Amino acid sequence: MSAEHPNIKNFKSAIQNNKIDDEKLRNFEKWMNNPAKFPEELRSEAEALLAQARKGAHGAIPGAFHNPYTFIPFPKSAPERHKPTPLTIDEIETDRMTGIIDVELKTLSPLLSPEHKKTKRGEKAPKSFKAAKWGNDVIVPASSIRGMLRSLCAIVSGSALDYIDDNLWLCQGRDANLSAGKGKVFLAVVVKPGNAYHSGIIRVGEAHLVKSQDLGFDCRSEKREQYNIRGAKELWIDDPDSLSPRCQDHEDSAHPYRVKVSGCKIPKDKDWEEKQHEGVFKPSCAVEIEVPSRIWMDYCGRNRHGQRPVLEENDIIWVQPVDPAKEPASWKSEDIQSLQWARWGKTGVRFADSLKKLRLGHMLPDYVKNDGLVDITSDLFGSIPLGGDSYEAIASRVRPENLVFPAARTFENELPPLSSPHPGCKAFYIDNQRPGEISLEDLPRGYKVYRTSKEHGDKAPWHYAVQPEYVKCEAKAFSVSDMAKKAELVAEDVKGSLKIAFRALNREELSLLLLLLSCDLRIGGGKPLGLGHCVVSSITLRDEMGDEFFSYVPERAAVPEEFADAVPPEYLKRAKIYCKTQEPVDMLRYPRAYSSNGNQHGGMCWFQEFASPKKSSKANEVVSKGLQTVKIASSLRGKFGEKAEIPAQMLPKFDPSNPESDWLFGYDVQCVKSGYEIQEFREISGTVKPETEGRYYENTSLNRQKKQEERNKRQKKNW
């Protein structure tokens, strides 16, 4: 029948002739999702063709790899919710079960469970870790096991998120042009920084724009950096209207204008230098305004991955007003829309607001709903309300002990650098497979889950040598740092044991707990590197007196026949999908590429080349939708049909029927360009010496240690 169906036939022909485009993909998907028109017997063939078409758009780019994580979609409807179950419910419902589960498991990949070292205030966290041990036994703390089981329970049962940072913003790229509108821009100096609990004070005034050339800066000037880094010199000038203003590093009556020096510029063409401007304003004529705590926290939320995650006294910032035509002298706190570090600022969207707007409000934590109800995950594992007054703290009825690996085999390993995720990344975190239309107004993808690796031994992704740090395209020799650390790991194929106490569970709750233990478990740290993959080898249930009443060897994503009638089919379906995400894949890597000028090599380069937000060529125009297409030279078009460009790469949706189908391309690949057009894809292995010297850009995202340092600073100020 498929050979006769015109949609299948035409789509297959378009693939063979390299004539697949966004519109054809969209129409084919629309047909597949229409139950009235799509013959269900064609489902498997149509899905295979769709995967082939998506891959074909990028298959001629070398450097195929798999991203370390994927997503399982959020449920479209709210989970069943009910009043919290008290610990003493078994005194009324006597058929409820209390007891202990003995679990035996083994590691399929090395496991990271670092010992906890107390550090004094101001002391840096250790960068080299021994395994957490009791004698010769390696221990994984009970709190870690409980968190792992709780997260897995939410995925399998479709429960709401346990916790949401109220100030988590989804931001990618710069989408707030403060020079738009009537052209007025405003600068301010921070007099007293605000925080989550206190308002702050700024002095704000209208800004002038001065050409960078007039200040003696070129695109990659070292002088520029002296004024741009934290703790840098101040820069004051005499006259912003002068073609050659006089500059110095302090204020006096002859130099009353302070300069806000922007970051290093990247030249685009011969005239680009003349287009660069810095902002200047006169603090002595500025107006002092109190800014509410909400504005300060919104700034922190938008910039948590940026160069200035927290503003400090004497910082120079851009101010986005509600009405740019209004003079600062008449401003009040409500006239300030946002504070921005750069003139091209960040708008973004607050994650919690996004869930509500996109009809996913049921994914918000139970404690913010203020109806006194909880889902099964909160009911089983407890909940401590962080806001609202809907219910008192709920005690967990599932309490694991420490996981113990007796006399475990361990080895010392140099770990690759790990950085914090950027959930605003449209190409990976947003549920829209149309590169030209994707925006932060689309749905989030769902529960984030980490993949596992087929590669073991020297080529495994958990080795520094496989994914090292780079400086000017040359791999650095390993040395412990904020990013790369040395750790003692539990080896593969090591057996461990775990006890889980449970109290007052009904049959559905106990069957759900057993279903969780039948799934692939991800335990400990370094999961993006493929670490901590474990499976349970045996389960023994004991009653509250310690007597054994049931023992079995679990099958993956299943429960024993004795509990089969108690498990909702939806739980089994989601458990099977989750276990499919844990099937090992080749080339498990963080996205990484060489920049077009050959001077950068790192994770963000891949996004710049293959998944960059769309930019406008028109002045003062903000583009909030779409990803940048990749223009290719005519010499490459034989590999991509007759197209002049190829779409940006998205993280493909996970396909449980083909877990390895979500390939990405361009790992360790340099795009050799002429202007904006790619002439050649050059796959590079090993270290590369750059042809031209240039500044390299280090990863400025906050790691765990830096985040804690920022929290300590804020707490100190609050007190």
Tell me what you see in this structure.
There is one protein chain. With 719 residues, the protein is α+β, with helices and mostly antiparallel strands. Among the domains are: 1-56, no CATH class; 87-164 and 361-415 and 485-580, 2-Layer Sandwich (Alpha-Beta Plaits); 176-346, no CATH class. It has 14 helices and 36 strands. Strands 2, 20, 27, 28, 29 and 30 form a 6-stranded antiparallel β-sheet that branches. A 5-stranded antiparallel β-sheet has the order 15-9-8-16-17, covered by helices on one side. Strand 31 and strand 32 form a beta hairpin. It is globular. Residues 266-273, 689-704 and 714-719 have low confidence and may be disordered.
SSE layout and pairing:
Blueprint: H1 6-16, H2 22-32, H3 43-56, E1 69-72, E2 97-107, E3 128-129, E4 133-134, E5 137-140, H4 142-157, E6 169-170, E7 176-177, E8 186-192, E9 200-206, E10 208-211, H5 222-228, E11 236-237, E12 247-248, E13 257-260, H6 272-275, E14 277-281, E15 287-291, H7 293-302, E16 316-321, E17 336-340, E18 344-345, E19 349-350, H8 351-357, H9 376-381, E20 398-400, E21 403-405, E22 410-414, H10 426-429, E23 447-450, E24 470-471, E25 474-475, E26 486-490, E27 495-505, H11 507-517, E28 521-522, E29 533-543, E30 548-552, H12 569-581, E31 593-594, E32 601-602, H13 603-610, E33 630-632, E34 645-646, E35 669-674, E36 677-683, H14 704-718
